[in-house]
Design brief:
The protein has five helices and seven strands; from the N terminus they run ααβαβββαβαββ. By secondary structure, the protein is α+β, with helices and mostly antiparallel strands.
């Protein structure tokens, strides 16, 4: 008895067609709470995802959400976040550690008002829904 081939997921079909924005949104919808590292590995066959760019907030250059990305990949993610089709959610480092990924940067625990003296990593996952604070003081990423 042979098994039927599993049809490709929606995101894979869109990526294979070159609809990378739709593919990225579909992937995040299917796997909510996605790390940048996971996206790099999943989208590597479809676009250049590796490079020298870092991603972080505009107002603090010492905070890094993820690094080692291509300009095209960063532009795609930023466009989808700016269009409010994807959202950045605070994550624990374990989201990355369990998958075998972590940057060689100190963890940003409580960023000082003037920023850190050197780059620090603030773990973020992408979601298809806006993040809702659960405790007083929790803040969504902007």
């Amino acid at each position: 008895m042979t098994q039927a081939a599993v049809p490709p997921a929606v995101w894979e079909r869109e990526a294979a067609r070159g609809n990378l924005a739709e593919a990225l949104v579909a992937y995040v919808r299917e796997h909510d709470g996605v790390t940048f590292a996971e996206l790099q590995h999943r989208f590597d066959p479809y676009m250049n995802v590796w490079g020298e760019m870092d991603l972080g907030p505009r107002d603090d250059e010492t905070i890094v959400y993820w690094l080692g990305m291509s300009p095209e990949f960063v532009a795609l993610i930023c466009a989808l976040v700016n269009e409010r089709r994807l959202f950045g959610d605070p994550a624990t480092p374990w989201h990355y550690y369990l998958a075998g990924f972590s940057p060689r940067l100190p963890l940003a625990k409580r960023p000082p008002k003037g920023g850190y003296a050197s780059p620090h990593w603030l773990p973020v996952c992408l979601s298809a829904q806006p993040w809702r604070p659960r405790r007083r003081g929790d803040q969504a990423l902007r």
